[in-house]
Amino acid sequence: MPELPEVEAARALIERAALQREIAVVDDGDTYVCRPHAPGELADALTGRTLTAANRIGKSMWVETDEGEGPTLGLHLGMAGRIIIDGAHAGDPLSAAESREAEEAGGHPDPRLSGDPAWARFTVEFADGGRLVLFDKRRLGRAVLNPDLTHLGPDAAEISAADFRARVGRGDAPLKARIMDQSVLAGVGNLLADEALWRAEISPVRPAGELDDDELNRLRRAIRATTRDAIRLGGVHTGTLIEHRRRDGHCPRCGAPLVRAQVGGRTTWWCPEEQR
DNA sequence: CCATATGTTAAAAG
DNA sequence: ACTTTTAACATATG
């Protein structure tokens, strides 16, 4: 279930494997994933064109066609989306069952990794026979033409310290809700938020406007470090707090029992001793 | 059957 | 008018 690091991996995969290939066939028949488009609209707009650049802000991707001459293809992985290109995949991590099957397949791509038809929500087939699939069990991902990205704040991995302080350090909402608001800051999801707040040793329930400059700087650094590590290690689920929370329910640093509660509408874990 | 799920967003509430 | 919270979305998994 992808956050900024997983989406960046998907963007990089598209950049590496899907550019400069002519589009021959497009399946945009899932009217929920492709809403508000009618079936055939993406196909009509994209067929015959070539993908020429893959971009990202936060969790939103957009792919240029024909060097910017054609329409833009917007892609969002939602809660469970994965990009699959000729058997290579990025985005939603493999489930335990999928990993097992992939291993048993012995190096050959599991058919599901090539895009089980039941979960292939949007498909671009290239003239050379290969394909790009938006694979998404939950159908909360999106594929749209010319996506509107104006409501997104600056990317969480790129934002400057001054901009971060000005945008995050205000309002009465809980800090965690503030950093997960994609119009404030783009890319932080539920797990990245918990991991970064734990690293910065700041409570998720503090009103955002209450933080001082030092705390805001610490939080920005923690978000950047967590993002970098997650990209390197393969996903936000590799985070230290994330791996420990359900295992023993204790803080990996000090051993105190972790607190679990709803904050900003999502399940949140934190160390009540260290995170103030 | 029940609870949970890493995202977004319209609607309701304040 | 603006900010914050809640509920709904579609579906899978333990």
UniProtKB/TrEMBL annotation:
Cofactor: Zn(2+)
Location of the Formamidopyrimidine-DNA glycosylase catalytic domain: 2-141
InterPro entries noted in UniProt: FPG_cat (IPR012319), FPG_N (IPR035937), H2TH_FPG (IPR015886), Ribosomal_uS13-like_H2TH (IPR010979), Znf_DNA_glyclase/AP_lyase (IPR000214), Znf_FPG/IleRS (IPR010663)
Region feature Disordered, mapped onto this chain: 94-114
Catalytic reaction equation(s): Hydrolysis of DNA containing ring-opened 7-methylguanine residues, releasing 2,6-diamino-4-hydroxy-5-(N-methyl)formamidopyrimidine
UniProt keyword annotations, A-Z: DNA damage, DNA repair, DNA-binding, Glycosidase, Hydrolase, Lyase, Metal-binding, Multifunctional enzyme, Zinc, Zinc-finger
Keyword DNA damage among record annotations: yes
Sequence ranges of Basic and acidic residues compositional bias: 98-113
One matching Pfam family: Fapy_DNA_glyco
Domain (FPG-type) ranges: 242-276
UniProt KW Cell inner membrane keyword: no
Family stated for the protein in its record: Belongs to the FPG family.
Matching PANTHER family: FORMAMIDOPYRIMIDINE-DNA GLYCOSYLASE (PTHR22993:SF9)
Name of the featured protein: DNA-(apurinic or apyrimidinic site) lyase
